[in-house]
Amino acid sequence: MGAPALAQDAAGGLALDRIADIESGTYIAGDSVKFTLVAHNSDFLLRFDNDPEVFVLYPVRASFGGRVLKYDSGATAMQVSGWGGITLYTDAAPNGLPAVRNGDAPPIAPQQVSLHLMQSAASDEADGLAYTRQISINFAADWNMLAADANARAWAFDAMENTVRGLARLAASKTARQAIASHVATVEMAQGSHPTLSLNGKRLIVTFSPSNGYEGRASSRAISRALAKLLKVPEKNS
């Protein structure tokens, strides 16, 4: 039996405008990697089981009706074929794992925290980086502003936690760890119109935008990549 003929439009061209559907839900890839994928505006939110970080995935059209979902760092997270098959790419499985949906997605929302909890977390995270990566960093923010704005505080906390993960990710390399120790003494969380990363002396300024939600703060992957560029050190994974 021959292959089915592709439909043609009125001009005789191939009708390949259909884009693969991506259904929100819980998924399992390679029999062991579990994650949640949720449609969010025109993007998607990804969260792996046993990992609090929420990644924003940005869709790009691929051939034959497929889509590629990319992290904000530019790295590919998933490929979706025109017929809906999903392949997940991870640091441990760079060649990809087939993924299948196995349930409905729970809601994803930022964690609401008190100012005291955020300040305690900032101190604990600094201690953790000193212990696990041998880098001494303090965290700073406009605590008075955050005390008065619960929404901004939730996104500041989310952005801070991603920054900690990004620092730990990059500092796994000895060269990067030494560069961070030499050039960064304080990480300042600051509001802005969009996520940015900049160095002012030995102060690393990380901006986030509460009004833009998940798209308004950088992921740990983007933090790691941007800091590697600022410090001119290699980063193995993005």
Description:
The protein is of the alpha+beta class and 238 residues long. It folds into two domains: 25-103; 115-231, no CATH class. It contains five helices and twelve strands. The protein has an eight-stranded antiparallel barrel. A hairpin with a 5-residue loop joins strand 4 and strand 5 (67-70). Helix 1 runs parallel beside helix 3. The radius of gyration is 20 Å and the shape is globular. Mean pLDDT is 91; it is low at 1-17.
What's the SSE blueprint?
Elements: E1 25-29, E2 33-40, E3 43-48, E4 55-61, E5 67-70, E6 76-80, E7 86-88, E8 97-103, H1 115-133, E9 138-141, H2 143-148, H3 150-170, H4 174-183, E10 186-191, E11 196-200, E12 203-208, H5 220-231
Parallel strand pairs: 9-10, 10-12
Antiparallel strand pairs: 1-2, 1-8, 2-3, 3-4, 4-5, 5-6, 6-7, 7-8, 11-12
Helix pairs in contact: 1-3, 3-5
